[in-house]
Amino acid sequence: MPLDVITGNQAAGCALSLAGEANRTARGAACGIYPITPQTEIVEYVARFPFTKGRVVPVESEHSAMAVSMGASMSGARAFTASSSNGIAYMAENIMVAGYYRLPIVMVAVNRTLGPPWNIWADQGDTLMLRDFPWLQFYCETNQEILDTTLLAFRLAEDKRILLPALTCMDAFIVSHTQTETAQPEQSEVDRFLPDLDLPHRMHYNEARTLGGLAWPHEELSMRLEIDDAMKRVPSVYQECRKSFTEIFGRDPGDMLQTYEVDNADLILIASGTIATTAREVVRRRRASGEKVGLVKIKMFRPFPEAALREACQSASRVAVLDRNYAAGTGGIFWQDTRAAFHSYRDDVLIQNYLTGLCGGDVTPDVVDDILTNLASRAEASDPVWIGVETGRRTLQ
């Protein structure tokens, strides 16, 4: 498989297009598109792709882009779209509906700061505001990971044990517009990996059916429980998809939670996206000098890999959660779920939140070094520590 120098956006567009084309012997593919910086290159790529049986529909808003994708998915087509920031906010109503309709739509999100004031740089708040919706969520570190995870997301979402939509996310500009060597698969390989979509509850033109009508409380509750059961099955089905991906494409798309030097680590950093790249290099360097530090990268945020996270951090006495996101008044979102994962299981680990890289701020090796130094000096956890507020790099206290 040749390596090409492409951007993260091109990698995402490639994955969406090849996945859509792989359904050409079934109901085909469809994509509702609307541009927004820094996502626009993705839908431009998809719009140029010569689908055998597929349609790309430019619309007047992100809300309509998801509506087109929903309509296509309801009819049995493989459906997908992409968006970012306030576009996702405008799309939110239909994002919620797609989840409760159990439509296996895949959306690539380029994480960008929500406005106002307007900001086009990386921040995960746009997709994490959807954390309670019935969508799978994956946060990717590299161009290769966004391509591979997007392909895997189709297989996972369309599995009849799951049937839930999926988000694959990347940091604005750091991944979306940065060119790196990326292996782009052949259509024949994607065809082998993605079987024809056979949506069991799809609409038929010659059969009268209502989708999403009024339901009584006990009926609605049973549907919520079915979604919960599907979410609980995701980790095991993910591993099946991962194994198949590795066999067909010859590379591992990565586990839902990835560790680095966590064996016997006393201090562990928890990060996602491109912050993990910087953190890994700092951990490598400090391990080489004899420090017992490690890294856990959370790739799959929904469902949250609680048991795997506890196992990865079993040797740690102190954990730092680095969040490129913020829930007003309550701190970082990955931190909140990390604390919940340890609650009632361990009370001997200090879990400290560091808010860094918000609104597109740089997370440099010096920042990560400061975090580790601060974490090592702590006897107890405090409120979340904000970094980069005053002069670009706040002194930790």
CATH topology of the largest domain: Rossmann fold
CATH architecture designation of the largest domain: 3-Layer(aba) Sandwich
Biggest beta sheet attributes:
7 strands, mixed
CATH class of the largest domain: Alpha Beta
Low-confidence stretches: none
Which band does the percent of strand residues land in? 15-25%
Taken together, the total number of domains comes to 2
Q: How many extended strands?
A: 15
Structural class: alpha/beta
What would CATH call the homologous superfamily of the largest domain? Thiamin diphosphate (ThDP)-binding fold, Pyr/PP domains
Radius of gyration: 21 Å
Record keyword descriptors for this entry.
Rossmann fold; globular; alpha/beta; 2 domains; seven-stranded mixed β-sheet; six-stranded mixed β-sheet; 18% strand; 397 residues
Description:
Helix 1 (8-21) packs parallel to helix 6 (143-158) and helix 3 (62-74) packs parallel to helix 4. It contains 12 helices and 15 strands. Helix 11 (333-342) links the parallel strand 13 and strand 14 (350-355). With 397 residues, the chain is α/β, with parallel strands linked by helices.
